[in-house]
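Q&A log
Question type: sequence-to-structure
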Amino acid sequence: MAAPLVRLVETVMAGWLASASPVPVPAAEAAVAIAEESQPVEVLLYDENAREEATVWIHRDGTADEENTAEITRLFRCRRTHKDKPIAKGTLAMLADIATRYPGKRIEYVSGYRASREESRTSPHRAARAIDFRIRGVSLIEIRDYLWTTYREVGIGWYPKEQYIHMDHRPGEKDIAWTFVNGDNVYHPSWSDRARSKVRLDRTPGV
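Response status: OK
Response body:
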């Protein structure tokens, strides 16, 4: 967490120094901001397959304590084989970010780790780097565009008919976006260009 905290302090300090106001830098407020950043995020989950609710706590960098890591691994286990594998830190960082962006909203997930024979060996699900989810009452397009414009080294898929978003962290690889239509992935959809033409940010999950 050291690097994110340093960046947070630098950002806060830069804002205060750039201000025309002669008011001294409020160190107490900076301390509060740092404390909030260091605290784990409450993530409300609902398993669409097992019809199971759960609450886990994840730090903004995608780390979690031993107890929560074990619970997250269990929750996102493969539904066909019942095998489990820890979800990648970068993917959990995005999950924590989504939970922070929509506080109190339950993240309904369809799929996490997948280990069946039918799953491609190159699938981010097989590598435990992907989660398919939705948030009831929140536009899929809003979630899709937020993830796509905020993060790099990711895969973001939109499944409009099935009503969920796929997100994965693919470190060292190029970003990829797609829309699932009539059983096929349509890559480089027009929405991906439109979204990033409006906002230009570079953020790698967990960094």
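Response note: Residues 143 and 165 are 8 Å apart (CA to CA).
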